[in-house]
Amino acid sequence: VRHLLGIKNLTENDIQLILETAREFKDVINRPIKKVPSLRDITIANVFFENSTRTRLSFELAEKRLSADVVNFSASGSSVKKGETLLDTVNNILAMKVDMIVMRHASPGAPHYLSDRIMANVVNAGDGTHEHPTQALLDSFSIQDKLGDVAGKRVAIIGDILHSRVALSNIFCLQKQGAEVMVCGPTTLIPKHINELGVKVSHDVREALNWCDVANVLRIQLERQQIKYFPSLREYSLYYGITKKMLDELDRPIVLMHPGPINRGVELTSDAADSHHSIILDQVENGVAVRMAVLYLLAQM
Ligand code: CP
Question: The Aspartate/ornithine carbamoyltransferase Asp/Orn-binding domain covers which part of the protein (predicted)?
Answer without folding.
Answer: 152-298
